[in-house]
Structures are given as structure tokens and as C-alpha cells.
Design goal:
Layout (H helix, E strand, L loop, with lengths): L7 E5 H15 L4 E5 L1 H5 L3 H10 L4 E4 L2 H9 L5 E4 L8 H6 L3 E4 L2 H14 L3 E6 L14 H10 L3 E7 L11 H18 L5 E5 L1 H6 L7 E4 L26 E6 L2 E5 L4 E2 L5 E2 L4 E6 L16 E4 L2 E6 L7 E4 L11 E8 L2 E3 L1 H8 L3 H9 L4 E4 L1
This protein binds pyridoxal-5'-phosphate.
Length: about 375
Amino acid sequence: MIARSYNCVTISRAALQHNYNYIKSRVGPDVRVMAMVKADGYGHDMVKAAKAFADVGCDVFGVAELCEAVTLRNSGISGQIFVMLGFEDVQADSVLAYDLTPVVFDSRAVESLSCSALKAGREIGVHIKVDTGMSRLGVKPGELVEFIEEIERLGGISIAGIMSHFPESDNPGSKSTETGFASFADTCRALKNRYKSICHIANSGAVLNFPNTHCDMVRAGIALYGYHPAGSQPSEGAAVEGLIPAMTFSSKVVQVQSVPEGTGISYGHTFTTDRETRLAVLPVGYEDGYSRILSNCGEVLIRGRRAPVRGRICMNLCMVDVTDIGEVSAGDKVVFLGRQGKEVITADDIAEKMESISYEVLCLLGNNNERSYRE
Ligand SMILES: *Cc1c(COP(=O)(O)O)cnc(C)c1O
């Protein structure tokens, strides 16, 4: 029996590796590149993506939660694994057992880690998250000295790094990147004199737009998967060349039907044909990560031509107008994301229609469909 979905996300290992090498060449030999593989590798399969990066020399990875880090470790990744969102008290033993690198931002975490480390007769290095303008996770720069003193009083735990995050580095003219970095750099200078700690703040936007912020390590996410964080029209001066999108998403036509002028299409009849229309029915819906927001505005590629979505996206189906595209029949390949002939649809194109960003499109499509890697 061949039990496969019509729908298939295909990922190019070569594109992922090209993007890693490209980022590495931008930051130079003295700066480490952490591959952010959270969100199941931005939809690209965390374990397979991490292995692709590891095979071209990557030895540091970032995930959001401890459970992801454990999966990565159990799958044979031997590099350093950062857990960005901390952990619960009962998980402190696991941080040690799986040799993970925790990001810390409160007393509770460092106390429970210290406890576990002393019990195990080990010492663990932590990275402190500082909030220099994102207003998200982290200790405020003004609270840092107190937090560091607290860590110093505890046994079994040492400060291996300090990190922050940029809210607007995708924009090369952003003032917050300059002010945030100035604050971060001050903090790092003070710490570096006392500890053997490293500093890191740059995400993809800063990798591409702000070379002065690369510090000891950069944390690249979206660029590894082939997209610029600013979308398809990055502000003037932003670099876009050099990245190759790794993901494509395709399906097959399940039925073609003709309907007369004046026919309502799909739930709510939000589209009425203004001519006799040939519709291709496609087995892709919001359950497959093709957002319902794309109703009446999405586009797909069939026979190398663009076909517009008509009516609402259903749970497992949607309809496109193929009247102007010669002979279309059941079984024809349909490209939702990627290239067909001379036409291409990028995650930025889809994101624009959703008023979102490529990140969300990649997560939605990648994490809701069968995936296969192309060598
Ligand atoms: C996701 C993430 C990154 C990567 O961001 P991109 O914009 O995808 O490069 C970097 N740092 C932290 C803390 C993150 O959570």
C-alpha cells in the first residue's frame, strides 16, 4: 500500500547548507553561528535541519523549550544546545543530564540549577538573558549586577555568557538597534573583565544589516531557511542576495469542474463567478497550514501559470480558477510554495497576503504536512 498524502513539503538540504555557509562567510571565522532550530526548525524538521547544519560544521543550536532540546540530543546531535525559554524546577536535573545550555533570567532557575549541579557534583555554565529594548524575556540592565551577585553566591553554577535580542534589526536604519546594542556592549565590557563569558545578540536581521553587533556568536534563524527577516522588500541598503529558500510545498488537483457565470463558490458563497469558469479543486485547506485568510486572495501555480483562489479556504480543500490555463486535469501538480516553470511563489508572497511574515508561513506549511528531504 502506498499511504501518502497528496500534499508534500520538500526541503532542500543543499539550500540549508548553502545558507549556513553564506552566514558563516558573512560573520567570519572568529564568530560562532548558532542555528536556531526551534519551531521544528521553522517548519523544516528540527532534527534533519540540525543534522544538515552539523554536517557543514555547525556545533551550536538553539531551541525554545527543554523538551525540544532533549529530542535533539536523543537524535544524536552532539553540539551545544541552548534552551531559550528556561525550564521548570523539576527539569533542572534534565538540563544537566542532557548537557544543555540554559538561558536564565530569574532567581528560581539559578537556585534549582545550582541545587541539581551540586547534587551531581558538577558545574554548569549559564547564559544570562538581558532585556535591552525588546520588552520580552530577560533581566533589565539595572537589575543585572544583583542577579550576577546572586549567581556568584551559588555553587555549581557559573556565568558562561550574556545575551540579548533585537526588536528591529531587520531594518538597517533602526535606532533601537543602535541604542540596544550600546546598552548591551556596556554590560558585556564590564562582564568580560571578570568572567570568561561570551556575548551574543545578533539575529538574522543583525547578521545581515549590523556587522558591528556580531560579538562572539550570532543566532541565525530565518536566514538559514533562505529568507530575509524584512520580507521581499527589505528597506534600502539591506542585503538579500546570497540566501536560497529551502522549502517548497506542492499538491495535486483532485477534480476539475466547469460552472456557469453567476455561480457561488465555497462556504458563504463569498465569490460569485462573472463568467463560465473552470475550477480546479485542491486537497489543501487551513488544516494543512494554508490559512483561511488566503480565501479569495491566495494564488497557486499549475502548468507553470498562476491560478487565483476563489471562495473560502475550507478545512481540507480549496478551489482555484484555471479557466485561462489550458488543459488542467486531476492529478496535475500544484505548487503552493516554490517554483514552477518561470513562475515562483515565495513565503514572503504568501505572508504579504496574510499580513504576516515568512516565519509564520514556513511554520504553518512545514509543521502541518508530510515532509521529505531532497539531497
Ligand atoms: C528565534 C530567535 C532568533 C532568530 O531570529 P531570526 O530572526 O529568525 O534570525 C535569535 N535569538 C532568539 C533569542 C530567538 O528566539
